[in-house]
Amino acid sequence: MDREIVLTLPDGSERRFPAGVTPLEVARTVGERLAKAAVAGELDGSLVDLRAPLTRSGRFRILTAQDPEAGPVIRHSAEHVMADAVERLFPGTIIDAGRQDHSEKFQYDFRFPRGFTPEDLERIEAEMARIVAAGQEFTREVVSREQARELFRARGEELKLVRLEDIPQGEEITVFRHGEFVDLCRGPHVQRTDQIGAFKLLETSGAYFKGDERNEMLQRIYGTAFASRAELDAYFARLEEARRRDHRRLGKELDLFSFSPLAPASAFFHPRGAFVYNRLVDFMRELYREYGYEEVITPQLFDVELWKRSGHYEAYRENMFFSEVEGREFSMKPMNCPSHCLIYSTRSRSYRELPLRLADFGRLHRFERSGVVQGLTRVRTFAQDDAHIYCTPAQIGSEVERLFQFIFRVYQTFGFSQPIIYLSTKPEKAIGDDALWQSAESQLQRCLEERGVAYTLNPGEGAFYGPKIDFVVHDAIGREWQLGTIQLDFNLPERFALTYVAEDGTEKRPVMIHRAILGSIERFFGVMLEHFAGDLPLWLAPEQVRVLPVSDRFLEAARAVRERLVAAGIRAEVDERSEKLGAKIRDGEVEKVPVLLVVGAREAESGTASVRVRHRGDLGAKPVDAIVATVTTATLQRSLDPWPEAS
């Protein structure tokens, strides 16, 4: 341990402290007011408990409850308060472990003889309120393994003894206390319980010990906590908005897709959903022509020898579907890349052909466990806007730059602006020489730095065959979704012995760039549906315009309007039901038709239609030719505004 560390504070100043100083002690050197309000420290972006010794230099700041980054610390602390309340109310309850991810929730599992009831949760919340109001201090203690064993054995916490054995030998063991409660924990926690501003218990469920169905069933309680009641209320408002946008609900309501237990985690796209799906594919195909991609079609079923050669059999086998045919083992393809290598290898290639960009919308199959599949965002069969670029090492920079332009253009079309960029490096389970990995990682990093884009390093999260750049977008309510990826691969060209004839006549190895922009079409469909809350842009909407006759008297006039729209390539229908106009308008709104046209006596006589645009209301009567022109323009421009004339 260094005898002295240097901490760089938010204002850029540097302060020297003896190694082992705690964040709370650092806060006191700034001022007692800050020290009293502190809930955690942050060293080089990582949370540090206020009582933990600092042993290295770095960028440092003190977090208070007002900092967004303090949320996980507040929720982690509320987690301990909840367990304390359960112990007080139900003596003899055995506590297991809490949650690792406190970004939104907290939880604890308990050995309890029955499921917790809503009335139990009310009592637990009331007890938590008393503990919070008492302002009890959290303390941190470093203990030996034997001390921890004696502590939890004396408390009868046998599940904690099992958890204790999971801590690797040599790793520091800490316990946290407040009042009479103590738990095995790494922290961090707030200073005092009264820094937990507002909390709410959410639900209960059963949970197997350690997540293993062979173990006993425990009882789990979920909750959340924030620095203030206003933040808690805002959280529930976000949850309600997320429920309103849930693509699974919207898919059913809008008759876009469905699922069946006879094909688990595999979507059935209905006619309206298939239309949207195909429009997404058509959009990418149009851009492929512009960006120089050639589309290929490859088989679904391959001998496992292909996957052994590519490395998938070793690194990805648990996610693949296998079958035996005539005594040979086959697999459904989980990825397109090896089949593209087979295409590349069918003949000799010249440097003049490179870069060679092969695109493939082929169906892929991956085995996802039933516990993690979710609607369209995690399925077992899907297609990607997948492509592989074979290029010379000197072409890597220009190809990555070209991909950035392509990716940003696509995302802007859907209103996804300023994606977050991650550079992911070699994972623990990887194939290929370290030298190849280092070369690939340094080249991707250089591409990012030369482009001048901000990015975050994501150590150990690369693909098993190469490092990657991932693109994460924010949807309309601020949630993050990882979509596109650029992956640099020196390994597959080596494994498949791919070559090209260089300008000097020698054979050289190409570099392979894996890339997807939308990613899985299924997943993007779900993300997009939630982003737009079902209000698809006019160019994607399966029904762009619905014509509403005021009464049956004007049905023929409404049909005539539809015919003019359809002749212009507009997707239009007539609501021919003998319903009141108000009901037809309401149904059109519920079914999220972008443009409604009302035809009555005045409109029939003048050759117009009264225009109603979703979320904008009545725009008045307009000539049908003008309506055709506006809808056509919005469609061709892929406008996010269904009626750009009114912008």
**Which term fits the overall shape?**
globular
- Biggest beta-sheet profile: 9 strands, mixed
Arithmetic mean of pLDDT: 93
Q: How many DSSP-defined strands?
A: 33
Percent range of helical residues? 25-40%
Summarize the structure.
By secondary structure, this protein is of the alpha+beta class.
Keywords for this entry:
647 residues, alpha+beta, Ubiquitin-like (UB roll), Threonyl-tRNA Synthetase, Chain A, domain 2, BirA Bifunctional Protein, domain 2, 4 domains, nine-stranded mixed β-sheet, five-stranded mixed β-sheet, 20 helices, 35% helix, 27% strand
Structure description:
- It is a single chain.
- This protein has 647 residues and is of the alpha+beta class.
- It folds into 4 domains: 4-64, Beta-grasp domain (Ubiquitin-like (UB roll), Roll); 71-242, Threonyl-tRNA Synthetase, Chain A, domain 2, CATH 3.30.980.10; 270-297 and 335-530, Bira Bifunctional Protein, Domain 2 (BirA Bifunctional Protein, domain 2, 2-Layer Sandwich); 545-646, 3-Layer(aba) Sandwich (Rossmann fold), CATH 3.40.50.800.
- The protein contains 20 helices and 33 strands.
- Strands 15, 19, 20, 21, 22, 23, 24, 25 and 28 form a 9-stranded mixed sheet that branches.
- Strand 11 and strand 12 form a beta hairpin.
- Helix 13 packs across helix 14.
- The longest helix has 21 residues, at 271-291.
- It is globular, with a radius of gyration of 30 Å.
- The chain starts with a strand and ends in an 11-residue tail after the last helix.
- The model has no long low-confidence stretch (mean pLDDT 93).
